[in-house]
Design a protein that fits this description.
The protein is built from 12 helices and 8 strands. It is an alpha/beta fold. Strands 7-6-5-4-3-2-1-8 form an 8-stranded parallel sheet. Helix 6 links the parallel strand 3 and strand 4. The protein is globular, with a radius of gyration of 19 Å. It starts with 14 loop residues before the first helix and ends in a 12-residue tail after the last helix. One of its GO terms (molecular function) is deoxyribose-phosphate aldolase activity. Belongs to the DeoC/FbaB aldolase family. DeoC type 2 subfamily.
């Protein structure tokens, strides 16, 4: 939709209130026993299994894709009463150069390939090159594109330029879903996070995402709360239900449950489905599998028995 700065420019976030609300989630809501196992399986289905390292290879991507296709050991799938092959991750996320390898490794299993783009993680390259990178990733087979915004435009409150840039990126994505990474750890205030979220949504983002995973501070519950409120406000304004993706810093099954509780309480059950909720993570899956094994057997296994890929 066209930029409507009046819809958000006067909004200021009460940081202490946001932090209190976020801190209350774990104490007020708990999921136990069989229900916890079910929630953890849902968390697996929402993971964008990710490798974004400088030493990535086609072989590493292939191993990651094999884990995405079968993220739970067959004996645990059977013990939970699930159909073989019914549990898969939400996507596999890689650099543009690794998209062809991921597409080949996943085949027609139904797990989409997501690619970061636009000069990830800083985004400090000319717009023309950022758009070309999106177009390359889409042409190579990526069906989801994770773009990064220009943080300097947020600090200058240059909402028009930010809207124009993201709109151009949305156009370059074509039929691919676009996730707009705000890099919230570098935006300084929760008010900036809210404003940037609203601009990204107005510019056509299908998802808004907290972090690149490369900042010193990545996904936190207060930041996620503010972004969820922006999604809720934008839905009232436009009728469009955008998705949300926390990334970076989610390492334990307890983290996954906390964010699922946030989604259910702030946005509703539809936002506990992979169509509207994703978790950007790599090591998280191993701890979830470990917790599910405990649910099945009553015993904790060593972490090294649950390989990431």
């Amino acid at each position: 939709m066209p930029l409507d700065a009046d819809a958000f420019a006067r909004v200021a976030v009460n940081t202490s209130a946001a932090e209190r609300r976020a801190a209350s989630l774990g104490g007020r809501r708990s999921v136990k026993k069989a229900w916890q196992a079910a929630w953890l399986v849902r968390a697996i289905q929402c993971i964008d299994l990710t490798t974004l390292a400088g030493d990535d290879t086609e072989a590493r991507v292939a191993r990651l894709c094999a884990k995405a296709r079968n993220p739970l050991r067959p004996d645990l799938v059977e013990a939970l009463g699930l159909e073989p092959g019914s549990v898969k991750t939400g996507a596999v996320c890689v650099y543009p150069a690794m998209v062809p390898a991921a597409v080949a490794a996943l085949g027609d299993c139904g797990v989409p390939v997501a690619s970061v783009a636009t000069g990830f993680p800083a985004g400090l390259v000319p717009l023309k090159q950022r758009l070309a990178e999106i177009e390359y990733a889409v042409s190579a087979g990526a069906s989801e594109i994770d773009i990064v915004i220009s943080r300097s435009l947020v600090f200058k409150a240059d909402w028009r330029q930010l809207h124009d840039e993201i709109t151009a990126m949305r156009s370059a994505c074509g039929k691919a879903h676009m996730k707009a990474i705000l890099a919230t750890g570098e935006l300084a205030t929760l008010t900036n996070v809210y404003h940037a979220s609203m601009v990204a949504l107005m510019a056509g983002a299908d998802f808004i995402k907290t972090s690149t995973g490369k900042e010193s501070v990545n996904a936190t519950l207060p930041v996620s709360l503010v972004m969820c409120r922006a999604i809720r406000d934008y839905r009232r304004l436009s009728g469009f239900s955008a998705g949300f993706k926390p990334a970076g810093g989610l390492k334990t099954a307890k983290d996954a449950l906390s964010w699922l509780v946030l989604m259910k309480e702030e946005l509703g059950t539809d936002w506990t489905e992979p169509e509207r909720f994703r978790i950007g993570a790599s090591s998280l899956l191993a701890d979830i599998e470990r917790q599910i094994e405990h649910s099945v057997t009553g015993r904790y296994s060593a972490a090294e028995r649950h390989a990431m890929a």
